[in-house]
Each structure stands twice: as C-alpha cells, then as structure tokens.
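Lab notebook, bench 4. Still working through the backlog of constructs that have no structural model yet. Next entry is a single chain of 442 residues. Request: give me the structure tokens for it.
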Amino acid sequence: MAIVRLKKGFDIHLLGAIQGDDIAFTPPARSVAVVPDDFHGIIPRMEKKEGEHVTAGEPLYHDKNDETIKVVAPVSGTVKEVRRGERRHIDAIVIAPDHDDRQTVKHDLSGNALDVLVASGLWPMLRQRPYDVVPATSVRPRDIFVTAFDSAPLAPDLDVVLGDKRQYIGKGVEVLNKLTDGKVYIGLREGQSIDAPGAVVNTFAGPHPAGNAGVQVANTVPVNKGETVWTLDIVTLARIGELFTTGMVSHDTVVAVDGEMVQQPGYVKTIMGADLETVLKNRLTNVAHSRIICGNVLTGVKVEKDGWLRAPYRHITIIPENSKPDEFMGWASFSPSRFSIYRTFTTWLRGLKKPVSMDSRIKGGERAIVRTGEYDAMLPMDIYGEFLIKAIISGDIDKMEQLGIYEIAPEDFALAEFADTSKLELQRIVREGLDKLRAEMS
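Model written out:
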C-alpha cells in the first residue's frame, strides 16, 4: 500500500457537522425524480410516457447517441410528469411510487459483464477522463480509479454510507477487472482499511481535494492524451458488486443531512431521487432563510425545498441564505468572525480548524485574473491552473491540451473557485472548455 502525501489544498470547517454514525429512516417518498442533467454526456430520449407504469430498474430513457446506455427508474410507480424547460429540455422525470418493494428488474448474469452493467442502469454512475462524462461503451479504459472517501466540507463518511454493502466490494473489484486491461485502483484516507483483493490500494494524506478522483489519478498514474480512465466512488463499486451477486440493483441510499441550518445533522436512509420535503421533514431551523444544496457547498447544486435528491445521492448541505445583507462595512468589515484563507481577517488567530459560519454570499464581484498563485495552492495536480483557465477562456485548444485539460474535471477547480479573489466561475469555465474540446475531437 503506497502513501501519497498532498500538501496543496485546504480543509474548510463549517458549522453543522454530523456527530456519530446513527442512521434514521425517512417515511416513504411521496415522489421520486430522475434529473437528466446529473448524467453529463447523455442526451435523453424517453422510453416511457406520462401515465405509464414503470418497474424499479426499468429504463426511463436512453442516450440518443448510444441506445444501449440507459437511465432506469429507482422505484416502481407511475410516470407522473416529464417536466420540460426551454427548447423542450427535460428537467426532471417525476414518478409517483406505488411502494411495492417486490417489483424490481432482475438481470441475467450469464452474459458479458459490460452488457449486464449497462443494462442495469448503473453505467451512468461512472465517469471517464478525459471530459468528465458518462463513459462510452465502445472505449476500454486504461485503468479504473475508485475513491473511498470524500474530503469536501461536511462530507459524509462513506464507510457509514456503505453500511452492510461493504460485503460486495470484493465482487465489484472482480467485475471492474474484467472491464479494463490495466488495474483497478482504490484510494483510501489515512487510517482507513479495506478488503479488496485484486485492487491496488493507495492511501492519500492531506487536505481537500485529496478525496477527488481526479487528484488521486493525477498523483498515481496521470491521464495522457489518447488515454481513457474511468472513475467512481466506493458506494457505486459496492452497488456493482451487489448487482453481480444478487442480479438486482439496490436503489436505496444513505444520505448525510448537515449544515448550520439543520436542527440535528445526521444520516438518513431513503431512496435515490426522493422528494426533499420527505427527506428534510422537521430538520430545518428556518426554511425561508436556508439554502438547500444537493451535494457539498463547493460542487453541489442549489435546489428548492420542493425539489428532489440529486445524484450522486449521498449528501445534502443546508447553509444560511444571505444572512447579513446589511452587514456594517460589508467585505471590509473587521469582525473577528469573518473567515479568510489568506489571513485577511483575525479569524486565523483562533485556528483555522475551528468551525465557522458561512452563508451563500459571494462577497465580491468578478474582476480580471491576477496571477497570484491562488489556483496552484489549491490544486494538488501537476498543472498550471491559472494558465489553463486563461487558455480555456481564449478557446486555445492546443494550449488546453498542453496544460493538462485531459486530467481535470470541474470539481477539481471547486476549491480554487472558493479561494479566487477574482470571483470567477471556474467550474463553469472548465465545464465549457471540456465540452468544447469533446465536440472538436468527436
């Protein structure tokens, strides 16, 4: 087992962390939704219409460019609504559950492992580098990387999320080894242990983003032009193992509900895509002044209280929504409670590991990029972040390739976006750059 020690990065300690590992059970979901935007790279073409019945594990839609890639229903029930936005973009597919746990698709495991995995609906849970999209079924990866921990602010303990599904990890590794000519790598946090014969286990020590799959890839066997690797988390690996053990996909999930605006931060067990009103019932301290984020505060998606749990279905963070709009002196305030990575305020005197309160304000406006080394200090990868962002903005594909765009995903720049004094939307810039490059290369 190799130990990789990372010095770059930063751990953000927020109020509202979970204490303990008890898991509560939510009432049955009133509605369940699948949001196509959660599976970047798939252009949805519906297989079910409004009013039709669907069984758990049955396809809701497939990829327009590859009909074998399907996204399935997490529950049995009736397709209540196919919600569309501008230009008939599918925003969400809403299912009214019938709460019949006996109905679920069972898969024949005698076929090719790749075909079984694609048919199961677990395929969209994987990501490929380059481009950070759902993998193409026609490309065999050089290696497969599994991250077993999440280092983001208030992130759940994936060992708790795994629960009794840990028993399927070995089978999952066995299946992944059939899908690559290279190796299956598993990245652990220092102090973690795992029983995964057939996998290469590496331990990562250091601050966030040490838990990002891209950071782990870059610090073990980086991606070069012309190479493809797949990434996933340990929870998805266990689901794959369960599929190839039982023949069925489990769509239940354990979700961390935490943040400053949560009464009792903790873990809850629910179903993928469950409505948030059910999941968050009696948990918020002030609904009107809360920002609900599916995911962590750096990479998550803002949702409304009547929305649904979004992929990857393991974290909900709730923070204050613009709690001090009329704060005295604004960003220039000398309040001792103000936080800054760069010791601009006096907060650092009491230690940067003490949890702090942060709301949804940006606290500044967008301005020109100034070369200060901020991005590089938050990015433990062998690339020049500032130069890469400039190349993406200018649309210089040759420079993008030379500066390492094939290695990155938007989440790798999330911490740099938080620390950026220029207040640029770095994740959006990276996503647009990856999409442009993918279009040029296809």
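Notes after review: Residues 374-441 form one domain. The chain has two domains: 2-246, 374-441. Flag for follow-up if needed.
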